[in-house]
Every structure is written in structure tokens, then in C-alpha cells.
Amino acid sequence: MAERLSGGCICGAVRFTASPASDEMGVCHCSLCRRWSGGAGFLGVDCGTAVEVENADMLGVYKSSDYGERVFCKTCGSTLFWRMQDGSDIVVSAQAFDTPGVFRFTSEIFVDEKPDNYAFANDTKKMTSAEFFAAYAAQQDPSA
């Protein structure tokens, strides 16, 4: 999906454009994403590094691990991005896009951390935390 899409926070203080890597979205069920999103996990769209932000001074950043950080609007608190601290990858909240309905729900990660009190009806690829980290490591090491 080479198309640039726009989006923003609830109050409008932050606007962005992004080029999603594909028309797919996934959900992360880890405890941090569930707490951060206030729901059944973080519904995200991989945008690589193709995200441009207006009013970047309105972004709040929380370093949530040794490698990742969560980005939100300082004014209204809207969940916007999960990104690598080195800037090598940005996952945009699917619901922060102006047209979230363009994305197909295809994957779920950290399913071993998902509580039993909800389940999605979509037929998705499901990965445990160990499977996700193994797949990510393999992507980083082309000799693997």
C-alpha cells in the first residue's frame, strides 16, 4: 500500500500522514498494549519509517521497554504510535487514521498474554510472544 493516509488525535493537536506497508492491521495482546489502549489490545498498522507528524512538539513519549516507546498526544492523551526507540519502525494506531476501515484485520501477537474474557471472530494468524520474538529476530538476521 503505497498510498499516504492521514490521521490524528481526538483534539486535533496532532495530525500525521503515513504510508502503511500494506493494508493489514494486527493486534498486540501484551499487557502493556492492553493497558495503553484501554481495550482489547493495540490495533496497529506497520508504517516502517514513513510517518510525518505536524506539531511534533505536542507528542508525549513513554519509553515502555529497552527498545520500544509509546507515543500519544500531550493534550488529549490519544494513543498514536508504537515505535522502536532507534526510529527504525513505527506502528500507527489503526483507529488514529481518518479511514481505519481500509485495513484488513489479519494478525494477533502475544496471544499467550491475552485474557480469556474476549476473543476476535476474525480468522487471523496468531503468535505467542516467543514466536513473535523469534520471527522478529529472523527478520533482523538475513543469514538465519
UniProtKB/TrEMBL annotation:
Keywords: Lyase, Metal-binding, Zinc. Transmembrane segments: none annotated. Gene3D superfamilies: glutathione-dependent formaldehyde- activating enzyme (gfa). Residues 5-119 form the CENP-V/GFA domain. One of its GO terms (molecular function) is carbon-sulfur lyase activity. InterPro entries: CENP-V/GFA, Mss4-like_sf. Signal peptide: none annotated. SUPFAM superfamilies: Mss4-like. The keyword Repressor does not apply. The keyword DNA-binding does not apply. Pfam families: GFA. Belongs to the Gfa family. PANTHER family: CENP-V_GFA DOMAIN-CONTAINING PROTEIN-RELATED, GFA DOMAIN-CONTAINING PROTEIN. This is GFA family protein. It comes from Martelella lutilitoris.
